Amino acid sequence: MCMRNSGSTASSYQPQISFQMSQETLEAKSNITVDVVSVSENDASESSLPPVDHGFHAYAYLASAWLVELLVWSYPFSYGVFLDYYKTHIFPTAPTSILALVGSMSTGIIYLSSWLVLPVISRFPALKKPLMALGVVFCVAGLVGAAFATEPWQLVLTQGVIYAVGGSFLYFPTMTWLFEWFSTRKGLANGIIFSGTGVGGVAVPFIVEGLLHRYGCRTTLLSMAIAFAVLIIPAFPYMKPRLPVSKSTTRSLEFNSFMRSPVFWILFAANLIQGLPTYIPVLYMPTFAADLGLSDNTGSLSLALVNGASVFGLVLLGWLSDRFDLRIAMLVSSLGSSLAVLLLWGFSSGEPLFLVFSFVYGVIGPSWSALWPRFIASIVGDDPHMSSIVLTVFIGGRGVGNVASGPVASAILRNWPLTGKAAFAYGLKGYGPLVLFTGLTLLLSAAGVGYKRFQKRGNSHSV
């Protein structure tokens, strides 16, 4: 009796246990099936996108971005040729300070506008293409307007402000897509893109000078406007994101996520410090050559050497940052450029050493900007959205240095105890303090290599 009740009880629960196990098994299989389908869909979605770091679309973007870099920046960087022509042919009685303002406004506005343009397009990526088209219109309008300027203030407005606003609208959206098209080779890609400025810095001033002396100011500016449009419009289809715009970002700006990082502040400070003296040698090379008693062509040749050498330097530094520890590339740029200024420029007493300095400094001085993608990867990893935001800060910091370098250098250029007592740069007029300030400030930027001590072990953003 007792045994039957026990057997009866056991047999009555068996079907229920069997049912529960089969139900759980079905649910588990269903979950596995859903997960597999989800992974397959994600893989299929990723495989439908163009490849990263290689392929036609990545290289087409790279070539188009290089062209944008060349056009947007080489026009303002060749303004020195226009300045001389304006002073001697168009506005001989106008204050030089007003005419010089055109050049500083065009470069300064492009740099500093990154703090406005990049946050907006990072939040609203669908605006990038329309903004780029508007940028082309502004650039062309600025050059055309300058061709018909009859007063210096009109040049400031057209060739200075309008062109610079258009350049920033075109340039910064293009640069944000670098982080989508390139990952492991982003340093090299960035160096290649930035080399466009060096190529333009070598070629455009000679082209502009030839056009000005042969055809005059109006024809030159109109020709530049036409060339800008003709060259940039065919590249437009290839200046595009790799990711669908709807997937690029729907997030709000998250400045606090990286501004709390000591790595960010160390690299930002190094970038700011390095940006202040970088343009001082370039700014004073023609004047220094003249004060040293060298030929007029030496000043122009020194600038051509700096710009031409920077093409090689930007690619080299970008490649170094991809292949080796980032700190090696940082030291090559900061320590190398510091020694070049203190030893080669400081002891220049004739044309040979001065031209050697121009080439060496061109390779390692301006090439610091090729390291930005690796700075950014050290802070926020490979997130394209956050990378474009951090890029804003680094470009803006470089812009502050660019704008401040002129007034700072003017204040430092003064006589000191070695003036007139040495045959080289340290004793030439007021260049001694200027050389020391430039070299030591570049050396100070090498302290940025200390960022590594603040990166957590195992950090995926470690570079």
TrEMBL record:
<dbReference type="GO" id="GO:0016020">
    <property type="term" value="C:membrane"/>
</dbReference>
<feature type="transmembrane region" description="Helical">
    <location>
        <begin position="433"/>
        <end position="451"/>
    </location>
</feature>
<protein>
    <submittedName>
        <fullName>MFS general substrate transporter</fullName>
    </submittedName>
</protein>
<dbReference type="Pfam" id="PF07690">
    <property type="entry name" value="MFS_1"/>
</dbReference>
<dbReference type="GO" id="GO:0022857">
    <property type="term" value="F:transmembrane transporter activity"/>
</dbReference>
<feature type="transmembrane region" description="Helical">
    <location>
        <begin position="191"/>
        <end position="208"/>
    </location>
</feature>
<feature type="transmembrane region" description="Helical">
    <location>
        <begin position="161"/>
        <end position="179"/>
    </location>
</feature>
<feature type="transmembrane region" description="Helical">
    <location>
        <begin position="220"/>
        <end position="238"/>
    </location>
</feature>
<feature type="transmembrane region" description="Helical">
    <location>
        <begin position="58"/>
        <end position="77"/>
    </location>
</feature>
<comment type="similarity">
    <text>Belongs to the major facilitator superfamily. Monocarboxylate porter (TC 2.A.1.13) family.</text>
</comment>
<feature type="transmembrane region" description="Helical">
    <location>
        <begin position="130"/>
        <end position="149"/>
    </location>
</feature>
<feature type="transmembrane region" description="Helical">
    <location>
        <begin position="300"/>
        <end position="321"/>
    </location>
</feature>
<feature type="transmembrane region" description="Helical">
    <location>
        <begin position="97"/>
        <end position="118"/>
    </location>
</feature>
<dbReference type="InterPro" id="IPR020846">
    <property type="entry name" value="MFS_dom"/>
</dbReference>
<keyword id="KW-0812">Transmembrane</keyword>
<feature type="transmembrane region" description="Helical">
    <location>
        <begin position="389"/>
        <end position="413"/>
    </location>
</feature>
<dbReference type="InterPro" id="IPR011701">
    <property type="entry name" value="MFS"/>
</dbReference>
<keyword id="KW-0472">Membrane</keyword>
<dbReference type="InterPro" id="IPR050327">
    <property type="entry name" value="Proton-linked_MCT"/>
</dbReference>
<feature type="transmembrane region" description="Helical">
    <location>
        <begin position="353"/>
        <end position="377"/>
    </location>
</feature>
<keyword id="KW-1133">Transmembrane helix</keyword>
<feature type="transmembrane region" description="Helical">
    <location>
        <begin position="328"/>
        <end position="347"/>
    </location>
</feature>
<feature type="transmembrane region" description="Helical">
    <location>
        <begin position="258"/>
        <end position="280"/>
    </location>
</feature>
<feature type="domain" description="Major facilitator superfamily (MFS) profile">
    <location>
        <begin position="263"/>
        <end position="463"/>
    </location>
</feature>
<dbReference type="InterPro" id="IPR036259">
    <property type="entry name" value="MFS_trans_sf"/>
</dbReference>
